[in-house]
Specification:
This protein is mostly helical. The chain is built from nine helices and no strands. 85% of the residues lie in helices and 0% in strands.
Length: 239
């Protein structure tokens, strides 16, 4: 197992310089998109009137996403599609602001940063894990997780009719599983293309990773906030 780990990791480390530059471009584009979402969050916090345009922002987000996929991926269209991706990031941050601001005001600011740090840690862990495993191993784990999620799909239904803290938390964890699987699949597909020398579209992969990160953040944030509220209720009962 150790030799397999080292072999797969060394294969990724010995990619052609062109493939390494393309992967770096994906991660740099992703980082700039996350930065644009932070800028959107900050702008929405300062300009409160933006809350009145949430529906328009949602429509614009959908149209921009369609535009990114509809625009042919060519070197000439890269700059235009990258600007569209940054706009997606900015609008996403603006849409998340109304949900995050009350948490900060009511003492859950640390929870927001905990969720953000957990997302970053999971992304780094998945990236290393995918680089160090075979395609067959990734497919096996993904399949096992999907079958487990389907086997436990009744949890969401029961929690809908008979909501309890345990069922709600378990439903959130099951929901978190899907963006995690999507991230692993995106990472595996990108590395497979890099190893055969195929072109990697930085905008398409960055959009996929960014969507996974946002969904992971929302699920984790809700999970941590619910846990904090439950702990507060227990402390109040003891008093």
């Amino acid at each position: 197992m150790k030799s397999t780990f080292l072999r797969n990791f060394s294969q990724t480390a010995r990619l052609e310089p062109r493939a390494q530059r393309q992967i770096l471009d994906v991660f740099m584009t992703l980082a700039s998109t996350v930065a644009s979402s932070m800028a959107g969050l900050y702008t929405a916090e300062r300009l409160l009137f933006l809350e009145d345009y949430q529906i328009l922002f949602s429509i614009a987000l959908f149209l921009l996403t369609v535009g990114i996929y509809a625009t042919p991926s060519t070197p000439g269209s890269l700059s235009r599609r990258r600007v569209m991706l940054w706009s997606v990031g900015w609008i996403t941050g603006a849409l998340l602001q109304p949900a995050i601001e009350p948490l900060v005001l009511y003492g859950h600011g640390g929870t927001v940063f905990m969720a953000l740090g957990t997302v970053v840690s999971l992304f780094a862990s998945f990236a290393v894990a995918v680089m160090a495993t075979d395609r067959e191993q990734v497919a096996y784990v993904v399949g096992a997780c999907l079958y487990a999620a389907m086997a436990l799909s009744w949890v969401g239904l029961v929690g809908w009719f008979f909501p309890t803290h345990a069922l709600t938390q378990l439903t959130l964890l099951l929901g978190l599983l899907f963006p995690c699987i999507s991230m692993v699949v995106h990472m595996r597909h990108m590395l497979d293309r890099a190893r055969v020398g195929a072109r990697i579209d930085p905008v398409e992969y960055s959009l996929g990773f960014f969507s996974d990160l946002v969904r992971m953040f929302v699920y984790l944030l809700k999970f941590f906030v619910n846990n904090d509220k439950q702990q507060q209720k227990k402390r109040q009962k003891r008093r």
